[in-house]
Amino acid sequence: MVSQPEYAKKLRPLLPPEAFEPAPSKLVLLLLNLVILMGGWAIASTLDQWPAYLLWLYLPISLVMGNSVIVLLFSSHNLMHGSVIRNRRIMGILGLLGLAILWMPPTQWKAVHNREHHNKTNSLTDPDRNYLNEQPKTWGKWIQNLFVPSAEVNPLWLTVGMTSAWGVHTFRNLTSVLFFNDESVDYVPAAFTVSDKERRTIAGEVLIILALHLCILSFLQFNPLKLALSYFLPIGIGYAGLMFYIYTNHMLSPMTSINDPLLNSLSIRVPKFFDWLHLNFSYHTEHHIFPGINSDYYPLVRELLELHYPGRMNLLDAGEAWQLLLQTPRHYKDENTFTDWSEEKSVTSPLSQNLIQN
Fold this sequence. Notes:
The chain is mainly alpha-helical. The chain has one domain (4-357). The protein is 56% helix and 4% strand. The chain is built from 15 helices and 5 strands. The strands form 2 sheets. A 3-stranded antiparallel sheet has the order 3-4-5, with no helix packed on it. It has a two-stranded parallel ribbon with strand order 1-2. Strand 4 (337-339) and strand 5 (346-348) form a beta hairpin. Helix 6 runs antiparallel to helix 7 (155-180) and helix 7 packs across helix 9. It starts with a helix and ends with a helix.
């Protein structure tokens, strides 16, 4: 295995210096999609005046708003990694605005994603990994088993899960940190702790996010029709879209004790339009090599990986990755074997060949 710092040390001199410079122009994407959401809510405020037979005309707006939810996560993700601006205070404010629709406090994001996930990717201590078969069957494990893509999942629950898995992930980690802040918490895949200062900041950010959502609901007059079309539907569409990417990032990969992104991460091929629309988020292995790089340079990182580490990178078409998710169980029996809830099936990770060879 090769560790992430080793890849970065070898490849960084081969990339242009501007790849590592802040790209403040990308703030436009974050702000633009906030404006799109606000515009959608402004239009929705008049829905009670629309004839019933014209309400379907709002559905394309719901779809555009749903995409804005996706872009807000991905643009905030880049922002919080420091590839857009370096001013921490402004980063925190904009991160709060960008992540509010996702119920994710930016301080929590920096802890769970930047610090824990990126440094411990798909290891025993990664909070974003699959549950272990040997872990207790808690409510968190039960819910994830119910609706994540797997060989056993019911299509109806999979649909429900696509629109709500992000919320469950956020709720699990938030309650673990705010209520317990102890590594013994067993309803998350891997519990982590934060400092007392971070914990207070996260609590404050949660209250601000709650207030923002209440403002939106109040602006929409708590009207069921307005909420259904301009709040719940766009959020459901957005969460489903981002979870499609997130499920493929590591769920098919073997666990690794050494943080080797070419083994424990997966990049997918999507139409170029979606790479343009979603800030190259499909280049996930490349992101794990250089978390703070300008996302425009991910394709160049891929070229270098394929040149210097031929045959080692996990790269699949998006459809193929999704089908593999639906053909395999979701709990780790060991580092490269999946099993199901009843422990009746054992399937080797389809991406484990590189682990065996290396």
